[in-house]
Amino acid sequence: MPMFSTSREEFESFVREGVEAIPQKFRPRINNVAFLVYAEPTARQRKQNKLHPQETLFGLYEGIPHPARGENYGGLVMPDKITIFKEPIESEARLLLKEQFSNNIRSYTTADRKEMFGREVRKLVVDTVWHEVAHHFGLSEEKVEERERQRRSP
Q1: pLDDT for 3-28, tens place per residue?
Q2: How many domains is the chain built from?
């Protein structure tokens, strides 16, 4: 199977799409936040999040969640950061597609596979943006995962 990837511009467009997918009632409250794209977590981020060598992150929220901001929040406060990591997301998309292709009799063209890869990356990015924005609003990892399950169920 060819090793697909997205361009940085395409990946960043998925991040913008993820931000725009946040419900309108929440978007105005996403302030003083920088959305960044990096290839993968830094050594410092890996250490701070106690990641084992085989573990990685799709995204990371770093900042002061809304509920922790007091009346005096503002002024010369550095922006919160939501970082989306390109390589781990693309690796996951490749794994998901490999599983799908191995369980499917239908043969796909390279163009079909590339299109499916792009759709999977887009979905993972949009979901990751949602996940990290939820942390920005003060939800714990457990609460975010609970809400994600609710979002997925019909």
Answers
A1: 899 999 999 999 999 999 998 998 88
A2: 1
Q: Which residues contact 10 (CB under 8 A, 6 or more apart)?
A: 118
How many other CB atoms sit within 10 Å of the CB of residue 77?
Answer: 12
Assigned domain for 2 exists: no
Domain that residue 116 falls in:
8-152
d(CA 19, CA 37): 13
Per the CB < 8 A criterion, the answer to whether 39 and 91 are in contact is no
In-domain check, residue 78: yes
Task: Confirm if 58 and 88 have CB atoms less than 8 A apart.
Answer: yes
Amino acid at 118: G
**Consecutive H or E run containing 85:** strand 80-85
Rama region for 50: left / alpha / beta (φ>0; ψ in -120 to 50; rest): left
What are the pLDDT digits (tens) for 53-80?
999 999 999 988 887 777 777 666 788 9
The candidate with the shortest Cα–Cα distance to 17, out of 153, 146, 123, is 123
DSSP codes, 99-140: HHHHT--S---HHHHHHHHHHHHHHHHHHHHHHHHHHHTT--
Enter the pTM of the model: 0.88
